[in-house]
């Protein structure tokens, strides 16, 4: 067993949004200090952090000073520029490691990695040229969706093909960027497994949660998910296989489609995940603490579920309903401290907790 | 219903120890920023606070700047100098208010207040002169304990009387400070009720916890306490009576002795309390958030208990046992980020959680 980082050590966190904020609180609970690196001003994570660096990911001096002031580096989002990672990695350990980032930053690499592991994904084809686009549409059919392979986030850089004749305009929308054509999947539910792997290789997974999206953004996650016991076990084992294959350290979100033919992997996120927020009020050790435990070398904590939970995101003006939620029995509130409630902006979430069914 | 302070408002917290630290985290969860005022360097609360003022309670300039930068003031300990309170109160609301502080800062005022409410305490007598000491020992008998009326904390400023003949040396130990002689109580258990009262007068109490002390410091709190249903109800009603009588706003810890003759009030603390730490893993809304809700004008949250919990304090070298606790199923860890593990110093606590019995 590796000795964990000593109390008082500093955890560097790339990204100062709500995930960084909840990671910083978890770090404090384990006796660590959090140092946030974030280009934008007044990031939500700064309210609960020991230190804040406001600088871009191109600022080599700021990156170097940040790395020198911390003991380990982790992140709340996966699209960190490669040049920044190269510099940081030369100075301090980055956990989860580069392999997980490389796979999750590129949709073709991600699908290839998953298929090579023997896991099923939506049908897909790599598209870099007009000829490849024609071949891809022939292989996948329509409807389908064309996405840039890199930096995709919440529906940006995507074009839908309702029918095969949309191929040309969709390809043009990529503006020459390498892309991937993905077929649609007939699924009965989307579930996600929040899994963790420690520095010592120990793997632990939370009970799968069932996700409902609205306008492309996660709306609710419900535990328990409506899965048969065998599916539940499949989901957890599948996630463990991914973490082990990547020699992963930290928490990962694995999104799965439930289909009549079995479980398909939709996407993986090498970080704490919105669909794991229910763990804050459903488990003795939540996903944020589990992540900090992993990256600092602690043994993983007990992630077993003591309660049923429905997590609901409050997006934009949803926040005006808070006074009602605040009075609800069994409802826990988690605000992100964002000043302005813009449409589509995640402002808070609530966890509605009930005794385990 | 009063409108709560808006998201982004600043909560001023007097005291930067572990209670201030956990209050700061709760403030963030409700979208507020915490500003800590603490004379000592590197206070535990600063790691998770938006701002820190390092200054003494005699520094009028620092107190004034602090008050001007916050929207409401609360505190993690009750022995704040009166001059500081006078200055702060002239600039911003202090919650809980002065009446609660006046009562809890003076043992004679506290006992008088409780007895006037019709509540039973240990037998006591005020002692300011040698003559009063003689009369007090005649009234109370021995064994008994003589304490200074003000600034008592964890056994400081106290002298035990094993027999009546110890009276003279005990009185001398007070060095002329006003004191109180308290008789010993034959109790079967010590329980505490963590109760909250909102700005709107709503009262809510957590399930009473049962306390075990070691060497004068709280060792464990267990919920449920071994109380009969009628005693449980008495304990909660009694606490509510105290909060209402003080027009109290915030969380209060009420320590009670269980005796064959009924419940006796041992002492009250106008703040979040060590014996309420179990709420962090036993309830949807913990004592820290309940306190922040009260002082910012939110409705009180649901403090009903979803689990059985045993809270254990880790004092001094106890901290070396953390690696074992970290592996225990159902165990949640809360470290305070203190650099040095001195004997008698509270370093962390753990909550051992089990399904509700």
Describe the protein in words:
- Chains A, B: Homodimer.
- Two copies of one chain form a homodimer.
- By secondary structure, chain A is of the alpha+beta class.
- Chain A folds into three domains: 10-94, Rossmann fold, CATH 3.40.50.20; 123-183, Dna Ligase, domain 1 (2-Layer Sandwich); 189-355, D-amino Acid Aminotransferase, Chain A, domain 1.
- The first copy, chain A, is built from eleven helices and 17 strands.
- Chain A has helices at residues 18-29, 60-69, 82-89, 98-105, 107-116, 130-140, 167-173, 229-245, 279-282, 287-296, 322-327; strands spanning 10-14, 33-37, 51-53, 72-75, 124-127, 144-148, 158-161, 179-183, 189-197, 203-205, 209-214, 217-223, 250-259, 262-269, 307-315, 331-335, 346-355.
- In chain A, strands 9, 10, 11, 12, 13, 14, 15, 16 and 17 form a nine-stranded antiparallel beta sheet that branches.
- In chain A, a hairpin with a 2-residue loop joins strand 13 (250-259) and strand 14 (262-269).
- In chain A, helix 1 (18-29) packs across helix 10 (287-296) and helix 4 crosses helix 5 (107-116).
- The mean pLDDT of chain A is 95.
- At the A-B interface, helix 1, helix 11, strand 16 and strand 17 of A face helix 1, helix 11, strand 16 and strand 17 of B.
């Amino acid at each position: 067993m590796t000795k964990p980082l000593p109390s008082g050590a500093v955890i560097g966190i790339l990204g100062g949004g709500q995930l960084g904020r909840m990671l910083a609180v978890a770090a404090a609970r384990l006796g660590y200090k959090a140092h946030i690196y974030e280009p934008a001003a007044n990031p939500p994570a700064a309210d609960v952090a020991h230190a804040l660096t406001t600088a871009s990911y191109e600022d080599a001096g700021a990156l170097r000073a940040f790395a020198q002031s911390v003991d380990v580096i982790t992140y709340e989002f996966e699209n960190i520029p490669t040049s920044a990672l190269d510099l940081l990695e030369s100075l301090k350990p980055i956990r989860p490691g580069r392999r997980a980032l490389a796979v999750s930053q590129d949709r073709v690499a991600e699908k290839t990695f998953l298929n090579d592991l023997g896991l099923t994904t939506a049908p897909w084809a790599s598209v870099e040229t007009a000829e490849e686009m024609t071949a891809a549409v022939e292989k996948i059919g329509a409807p389908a969706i064309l996405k840039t392979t890199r930096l995709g986030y919440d529906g940006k850089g995507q074009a839908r093909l309702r029918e095969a004749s949309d191929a040309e305009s969709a390809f043009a929308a990529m503006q020459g960027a390498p892309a991937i054509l993905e077929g649609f999947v007939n699924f009965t539910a989307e579930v996600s497994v929040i899994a963790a792997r420690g520095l010592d290789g120990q793997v632990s997974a939370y009970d799968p949660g069932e996700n409902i999206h609205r306008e492309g953004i996660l709306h609710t996650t419900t535990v328990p998910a409506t899965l048969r016991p065998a599916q539940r076990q499949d989901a957890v084992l599948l996630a463990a296989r991914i973490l082990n294959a990547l020699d992963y350290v930290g928490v990962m979100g694995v999104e799965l489609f439930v289909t009549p033919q079995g479980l398909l992997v939709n996407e993986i996120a090498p970080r704490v995940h919105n669909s794991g927020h229910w763990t804050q009020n459903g488990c003795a050790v939540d996903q944020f603490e589990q992540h900090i435990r992993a990256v600092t070398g602690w043994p993983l904590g007990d992630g077993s579920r003591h309660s049923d939970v429905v997590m609901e995101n409050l997006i934009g003006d949803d926040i005006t309903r808070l006074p009602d939620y605040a009075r609800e029995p069994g409802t826990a509130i988690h605000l992100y401290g964002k000043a302005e409630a813009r449409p589509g902006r995640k402002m808070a979430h609530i966890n509605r907790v009930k005794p385990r069914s």
